[in-house]
Specification:
Helix content: 25-40%
Protein name: IS1182 family transposase
Number of domains: 3
Mean pLDDT: 89
Structural class: alpha+beta
Order of helices and strands: HHHHHHHHEEHEEEEHEHEEEEEHHEHHHH
InterPro entries: IS1182_transpos (IPR047629), Tnp_DDE_dom (IPR025668), Transposase_InsH_N (IPR008490)
Low-confidence stretches: none
Largest sheet: 6 strands, mixed
Organism: Paenibacillus nanensis
CATH class of the largest domain: Alpha Beta
Length: 453
């Protein structure tokens, strides 16, 4: 006998929303193990205390934002519809079955006005990291960093070309001082100061989202992108730092400052770091050595001129401070340029009679020139770290930590594309995505730990 359930839709039932949400639902674990009480303290000063209409509870507002990132709901309008029909979402927000869901425009209005030019999203991310530290899920001893591209909400064919200043390096003053010290030790005259240190370069600027950067990288898509520079702790793969830049900013530019920020903000005593080949620069190697951090950085492949000797075939003699060519001839020191490179040059009269000349240099004056950075020793130490047994073991952790973190963000939390435009809005997206990833890890770990106890 066939029965229709259509009539039951009109029946009245006495139910409790508490009984309708499964005990093992993710949001129950989040609500149980994540303390959201700090949100009210972080935003209280942004609300008027004695006039105006009653505001929506900030905790409800931010929980709505978290739901959008938990489940990869890109549209705030769609988020409002999902909350209207999803019992678990209503339970998480503290709404009853008949309570009105806050309008989606409330989120966008608060972003554009109340939370504009504040650090509220960074503060929320930091608080979640501090909770992870309190649960002993973050060691702060071994960190792994990398960046991933995030497609900007902009047409790559709509742009203008502008002349801009290249990024100012935060190590420039230290480098200049090191260059002058080295020249003085070698008996060279001080270099004349230059009024303009940075050079102009032509870049494509998007008409739709000027904050984004036009990215051209081998093996990567071409167009306007942002870069999410992320750091994870190797202990439980918790994200400890998020920093967003335009897509045409080199990975190495913000690294040391973000590393110092974590050490100061969370009190990390960093002992080792693992980085991709994009971070293999002498300033980063020197910075890690100065901070007494064991650095492991992937090898970067260079493409020397075909038919000529490779640079590694010229041996450096540290005692004599000379390079020795494959024919056992010495290349003595000549000068140090303002970029921090020492120049070692051969004697043209000797090279002119050398049988290996065509394999050594193609210069018209028969002189071979080798450069060596004044911080090259730091770079060589990083290379030795990479080749060591502990270095190889640490670098293998990248694929199961930072790369997995990015994959999880893109696959489950809608992090392949920018939801909004502008560096500030994209930074919010990156911080909130990382925050909900951390919340999930904390909640699931503590729940599993409680069941095993």
């Amino acid at each position: 006998m066939l029965r229709s359930n259509r009539d039951k839709q009109q029946n009245y039932e006495l139910v409790s929303i508490e009984d309708l949400v499964p005990d093992d639902h993710m949001l129950r674990k989040i609500d149980k193990y994540i303390d959201f009480s700090f949100i009210d303290e972080k935003v209280r000063h942004l609300y008027s205390q004695d006039n105006g209409r009653p505001a929506i509870d900030p905790l409800v507002l931010f929980k709505m934002i978290f739901l959008g990132y938990f489940y990869g709901i890109r549209s705030e309008r769609q988020l409002e519809r999902e909350i209207q029909t999803n019992l678990a979402y209503r339970w998480f927000l503290g709404l009853g079955l008949t309570d009105r869901v806050p309008d989606h425009t409330t989120i966008s209005w608060n972003r554009r006005t109340r939370f504009k030019d504040t650090t509220v999203f960074q503060d929320i991310f930091d608080e979640i990291v501090l909770q992870a530290i309190s649960h002993r899920m973050v060691g702060g001893r071994v960190l792994i960093s990398d960046s991933t591209h995030l497609k900007a909400n902009a047409n790559k064919h709509k742009y203008t070309k502008e002349q801009v200043k290249q990024n100012t390096r935060d190590y420039l003053e230290e480098l200049n001082a090191a260059v002058e010290t080295d020249r003085k030790a070698q008996g060279k005259k001080p270099l004349k100061p230059r009024e303009e240190v940075n050079e102009d370069k032509e870049v494509k600027v998007s008409k739709t989202d000027p904050d984004s950067g036009y990215m051209v990288r081998e093996g990567k898509p071409e167009g306007f992108f942002y870069l999410d520079h992320r750091t994870v702790d190797v202990k439980y793969n918790l994200i400890t730092d998020v920093f967003v830049t335009a897509g045409n900013v080199h990975d190495s530019v913000p690294y040391l400052s973000r590393l110092d920020r974590q050490r100061e903000r969370f009190g990390f005593e960093v002992e080792a770091v693992a980085l991709d080949s994009g971070y293999l620069t002498t300033p980063i190697c020197k910075g890690l050595q100065d901070r007494k951090i064991f650095g492991v950085i992937a090898h970067r492949r260079f493409h020397p001129t075909q038919g000529l000797f490779h640079k590694w075939e010229f041996k450096y003699d540290a005692e004599k401070d000379v390079y020795v060519c494959p024919q056992e001839q010495e290349l003595p020191y000549r000068t140090t340029d303002r970029h921090g490179y020492r120049h070692y040059a051969s004697a043209p009269n000797i090279c002119a009679e050398c049988p290996m000349l065509r394999q050594c240099t193609r210069s018209k004056n028969h002189r071979k020139l080798i450069t060596r950075h004044i911080w090259e020793d730091s770079k060589e130490q990083v290379r030795l770290n990479r080749l060591s047994k502990s270095g190889k073991r640490l670098y293998r952790k990248r694929k199961e930590t930072i790369e997995r973190s990015f994959a999880d963000a893109k696959q489950l939390h809608g992090f392949r594309y920018c939801r909004l435009r502008g560096l500030r809005n994209v930074t919010e997206q990156a911080l909130m995505t990382a925050a909900v990833q951390n919340m999930k890890k904390i909640a699931f770990h503590l729940d599993r730990k409680a069941k095993e106890a």
